[in-house]
Predict the structure.
Amino acid sequence: MTFRTRLLLLFLLAFTSLLPGMAPAQALPPAHENFKVAVYIPVSVVEQMKDPAWLASSWNEISSQVKVDKVYIESYRSGVLADDALLESVKAYFAARGVQTAGGIAFTNMESNQFASFCYTDPKDRAYVKHISEVTARHFDEIILDDFFFNDTKSDSDIAAKGNASWTAFRLRLMDEVARNLVVGAARAVNPNVKIIIKFPNWYEHFQANGYDLEQEPKIFDGIYTGTETRDPVINDQHLQQYESYQILRYFDNVKPGGNGGGWVDTFTIRYLDRYAEQLWDTMLAKTPEITLFQYSNLLRPAEAGDPQRLERPAHQLRLRRAGKVARRLRLEGADRLCRRGRLFTLQSECRAGQAGHAHRHRQLQALSIYRRGFPAQLYGHDRHSHRPASRVSG
């Protein structure tokens, strides 16, 4: 075969791949050498993607500024469940452009109502949660749960089911059962190949009070994911320190060795635009394999020049000091280069699952500019002070 013939065949293959109805493109090679970049698409934005013109223009805007390897397409949040046809069409759009696709679920009954959870002792709520899992598994071989997989209800049925147990012990037991039967079990009954990943928030030592079980859930789910959205340490309700975007990821690396899929950052509650990029850099320094940007439509919002000292507004309303799209300010290429240059010196420190009373220990080390990596104790051992199983300390 001559060189000209080979060149003509390559041209024809490239041309036909652009025609409608052709098979999806092969996944592109990773855009960055040391980590992948994913974008999470909430179901409200998925609904906007019914408009093909908006989908095309918004994706052109984002992809021209950020090299995206993967998108998480959410099926459910706050009472909104996307229909099958929409999930398939959005999935096909990104697959045709060489972007990996996965599903997403936010198991919140109503996010705007103080993040109200489902009542997992209510048969109707249980049936709906199972249905959401089944619908999503029909479309995706990988599903990530946004960090709303907790319980905060105190209904009559909850009180009856709790009995004499503490709320902590009850919720840990309840959410383990829900994870096995209504999420993982229900999804695999529809799609035996599906992998379910649970994203844990950055609650540090307060997971157990609302049913996040750091001892059992990493075993129940196929993988875990880390919330590294520390935002602003002053105006944030949790007063999370910037350093925790690094620390919490290293801790979860040791909660499920080899099973921590990445770190997740958003644009909320920040006073200056670079705070978003700083969270990403701290996440990258922990050598995470993937960084997820929450969320798609926020990357499209303009950052207006002006006064950066307005504290009472969320990030997307601030008049920030540098103009440009949020997506343009991520500076992930610089992070990728830095990731190649060596290792950080860290100290090892135990963080027992379910342990309370040491919330500020890592901040004392931070004041000395020491990066700390948390380890679970003997998976997870016993609290040496109380002699109780550390994952079951009641609150």
Q: What stands out?
A: The mean pLDDT is 80. Residues 23-343 form a domain with the TIM Barrel fold (CATH 3.20.20.80). The longest helix spans residues 167-190. The chain has one domain: 23-343.
